[in-house]
From TrEMBL, chain A:
<feature type="transmembrane region" description="Helical">
    <location>
        <begin position="188"/>
        <end position="213"/>
    </location>
</feature>
<feature type="transmembrane region" description="Helical">
    <location>
        <begin position="58"/>
        <end position="76"/>
    </location>
</feature>
<protein>
    <submittedName>
        <fullName>Branched-chain amino acid ABC transporter permease</fullName>
    </submittedName>
</protein>
<keyword id="KW-0812">Transmembrane</keyword>
<dbReference type="Pfam" id="PF02653">
    <property type="entry name" value="BPD_transp_2"/>
</dbReference>
<feature type="transmembrane region" description="Helical">
    <location>
        <begin position="225"/>
        <end position="250"/>
    </location>
</feature>
<feature type="transmembrane region" description="Helical">
    <location>
        <begin position="138"/>
        <end position="159"/>
    </location>
</feature>
<feature type="transmembrane region" description="Helical">
    <location>
        <begin position="6"/>
        <end position="23"/>
    </location>
</feature>
<keyword id="KW-0472">Membrane</keyword>
<keyword id="KW-0813">Transport</keyword>
<keyword id="KW-1133">Transmembrane helix</keyword>
<feature type="transmembrane region" description="Helical">
    <location>
        <begin position="257"/>
        <end position="277"/>
    </location>
</feature>
<dbReference type="InterPro" id="IPR052157">
    <property type="entry name" value="BCAA_transport_permease"/>
</dbReference>
<feature type="transmembrane region" description="Helical">
    <location>
        <begin position="97"/>
        <end position="118"/>
    </location>
</feature>
<keyword id="KW-0029">Amino-acid transport</keyword>
<keyword id="KW-1003">Cell membrane</keyword>
<comment type="similarity">
    <text>Belongs to the binding-protein-dependent transport system permease family. LivHM subfamily.</text>
</comment>
Amino acid sequence: MDILITGILLGGTYALIAMGLNLQYGVARIMNLANGEILVAGGYFAFIAYTATQLSPILTIFLVAPLAFALNWLIYRLMLQPLVNRAKNRGQLETDSILATFGLSFIGVGLMLSFFGGDYFSYSFMAFPVELLGNTYGANRVLSFVMAVLICGALYLWLNRSRAGLSIRAIATAPASARLVGIDVKHLSALAFALGGAVTAVGGALISTYLTLDASTGVVFTLKALIIVIMGGVGDVRGTIVAALLLGILETLVASLLDPGLTLAAAYVMFLGILLFRPQGLFGKKPT
Amino acid sequence: MNRRPFLKLVSALTIASALAASAATAETIRIGAVAPKTGPLAGGATVTQWPSIYLWVEQVNAAGGLTVDGEQMMIELIEYDDQTNPGETIKAVQRLATQDDAHFIIAPYGTGLNLAAAPLFDRYGYPQIAVSAITDQQPELSAQFPNMFFTLGTTTALAADVVKVLTDMRDAGQMGDRVAMVNVADAFGIELATAAKPLFEEAGFELVYETSYPLGTQDLSPVIKGAAAAEPDAFVAWSYPPDTFGLTEQAMIENLDVKAFYTAVATPFPGYGARFGAAAEGVLGAGGVNPDSPAFMEYAAAHEEVTGEKPDYWASATTYASLEILAQAIEAVGLDRAAVTAHLRESTYETILGPISFDENNSNPDFWTVGQWQGGVFKGVASRGRDGTVPVILKEGWE
Amino acid sequence: MSLTATDIRNLCLASLVFAICALLPLGDQGYWLGLGVTIAMFTALATSWALFSGPTHYISLATAAFFGVGTYVTGLGIDTLPFWSLVGLAGVIGAVLAALVGLATLRLSGVYFVIFTLGLAELVRQVITWVQNNSGQKGLYVLTDLDEAGIYWWLLGLSAAVFLTGWLIGRSRLGFALRIIGDDETVAAHSGINTARAKVLLFMVPGAVAAMTGAILAPRYVYIEPSLAFAPILSFQVVIMALLGGASRLWGPVLGVIPFTFLLEAVSSNFPNQTTLVIGVAFLVIVYLLPGGFVGLMGRINRHLNTREGA
């Protein structure tokens, strides 16, 4: 039971890391390698707000979200839209966007470095124990799990109930046909990309309450997010949540029962296994 | 945390060195520096390596430079970012040696990067006073690279003194002999754990929990829970920076009930004390200094004034001491690198850590091994040949 | 197999170029030789990468996995086996590993393959560190008397072998099959080509080459750390350089490797505090201004000249 709860809490962290990338990759078709830098930037913001003005990260996220949304909207419009327009096919867009966002991630690291310096930033926020069913867990992890549930829930509802959400899902499934039925693909892609960035930055702000980050750690989170998104199925919120939880539980199981040294190896074995037997991801549709 | 002074300093230094280069090329000593500003080791190098270098250059130049053959020479610092990539370190050292004609090069940061650069220091005849390169291979390495010097100690000494500190506590009846030992599965963590295991067993300790975890593990609670379930008297983690913080926070949350709690790298960082505050009281860690010595206090004050950051309580001061050694050797014999290397082998140097001299393996036999947070300061509790160790206190809870 | 006059001319020219390159250590033992090692290393890696990825359009991020395995082969074996046999052994292990991966990933396409290969590098690294941790193996030190010039010649020889392999593949039935696969995999399958076998065979080339490169470079690093040996950045650098040059021609990647190495060198020597930032900007400039790499650029210039002449 203890293992299950620890695993689910970790899964919440992973959902926060991956959800934004899922929107960006699933809808806007940009495999954003600079995703981790947005996450770290969100964490920085929370760190500075907390250490300078004692502003609680729970409140900071309401500042981080619109800022990250605007920034990512600009990035998409200015830097990525030209690539989308130029690409003759899916493959070329993938290659171009890998190269471009890889460059962006370098720029992100460089900017954070010159503004904040390179050392670790970590602070203590809600680092007290909470008791759940007889076991203790970090309050900050529980908080970030609750936020992850809220964010994923809101996204899920929005994508399934609202008109814009439906259009976005249409783009994710069939971009060419979506255009035919009068959906403004350009506009909505930018929206999805910006929203993805905002979710990632908020995730970063929450994660910074219990993980130690520095300007160069973004890539670690990008890799993890990519794996979760692919595992869950591109463009599928449910899939990402399930994959994140599975990963969290698996890692905790292996760490508790087998050997903590094998957690990441086990995670990659599961990832590779899922890809081999369901190449389109847990919930993904077969590519047409 | 205010970073502005630091940035100002960097730009001031850049301008100053540019001016110095154009105004008085003939009278400057060109000192090269290469270390990570980005990549996995950047966090450590930004705390330990770069600020001490900036401070040293600033202080030497403020005092009118170094006296070389009766002439005052200012220092011109040429710095490169190796992005924590050994290939880049090699290129940068080569560039410093052959393109920039650096008179001397400050040793890189980290064991791997120092050793990648060692063949080049050797070929071009630069003395390499390595700081953050802790290894048991000092005899082999100094035989292969006679210009390489070691200041921060050996892996085995670091591990052995932890065992010794715990043995003393046990023999004083302060705790039992159950030890939980974990390590990060990366080079230095593995080396320390391999060295420590037989020592613990020899000293009669029982390793009740023993495991490793991968670098970059995001949730360390299974490790702490596993250790807690084994009911140890002491918890020892051969850890790296992000997980040193992670393990401590989990231990706080789980209220891990041990008499001794040890985490390795980054425990002496000022950021550790700032983050955990009173909970850090009694935490043991790798390294240490004598924070009450006037020399260290003066250094720490200057460090904070010039760079805007506090030094750490271990390798920062040793980095600065390695530069003091270099400066004294240059002032003694001039810019001839072979003469400086010979001087390093023979002489004793006065540094902020006390006197330092190198033995037949080019290693400094006097260094700090274990420290402990006591009253908001990380104090050395065990050392090889250093004065000012303080008694160990028991870890009493996490409040 | 018969050689035409053009073939013989090309072979002679190529041998001449390599012979001239091999003279570099006689001219300079320091800075330029260091750059030469970097260029030779990335030429071998990027050219072999493009041999597979050019025709198949699969973007492989597994370079770091094979490279790391190679460095470990040298690190573990240097005390017991001669160096040359370790390089060979690394090549065999790399090829076998690549064959296994190739067999497993046949069903994947596009981005799934990209992420799979990325995950592979991490998996191999985790398994190796875990084994190292549990076998009581201490740190790996590679102390040899192989100097920079020796490493350079090894890498240059490896690059020459890669070019020769690429050239031979291009002339063989396998190369013909690959061109068809590259144009249209369905057509290839229908015309009786065993696409799976062709792809696996081809994937073994970059696997073996990357492992051998790692094995050759291990003495240069002296101390083998998993986080440095398996650094994922290497996989990305190789992709970038190959794409910058152009993956559709055998000589394309080297056109990317050389300018990119000099660009990185210029950036890191002139902007020590903003290295990453400037590299990022340079990157974007390349992506936006040079689609299709230098090969594409040369194609456009040629077309431009041709239309001029025509008019």
